[in-house]
Amino acid sequence: MVNHDYQIIAKNYDLAGRASSRIKKYLKTQNISKRLLKRICSASFEAEINVVIHSYGGYATFDHQSDKIMIDFYDDGPGIADIALAMTEGYSTATPLDNRNGFGAGMGLSNIKRCTDELEITSTIEGTHLKLTFYLGEENV
Question: What is the CATH number of the domain that holds 107?
């Protein structure tokens, strides 16, 4: 089992994607399919960007077990008021600054859901937790 933790800094567009890049670098050393690698990298990048643009900061944890990969994203608020609405493609609360930096199209959560085998979202005003799970079946190694 391999575990890693990554800090994610709010509104720091220069470091946005750093955690996802480190996850990708590690996964490239493992015997997993390119298709699964692409799914994991896409979902983790989307989740990391959501922390950067929508929260007060947070962190990610990466857990590689023999049968699955789990990546958890935690942020320090303000939370998602309506998760069902936030899952709607095209819906975004991104600011003009986020848009100028190339983010905020409103596809993040729906793209994450499409890429993961399981996605759990919990959110309060104190923060949001996304749990991304990818199973390592025979087709993925």
Answer: 3.30.565.10
Mean pLDDT value of segment 19-35: 94
Residue among 53, 47, 6 nearest 25 (CA): 6
Q: % helix / strand / coil in the chain, to the nearest 5?
A: 35, 25, 35
Mean pLDDT of the chain: 91
Q: Which amino acid is at 5?
A: D
| Rounded-to-integer distance, Cα 83 and Cα 62, Å | 23
What digits encode the pLDDT tens for the residues 56-88?
Answer: 999 999 999 999 999 999 999 999 999 998 888
Give the chain's domain count. 1
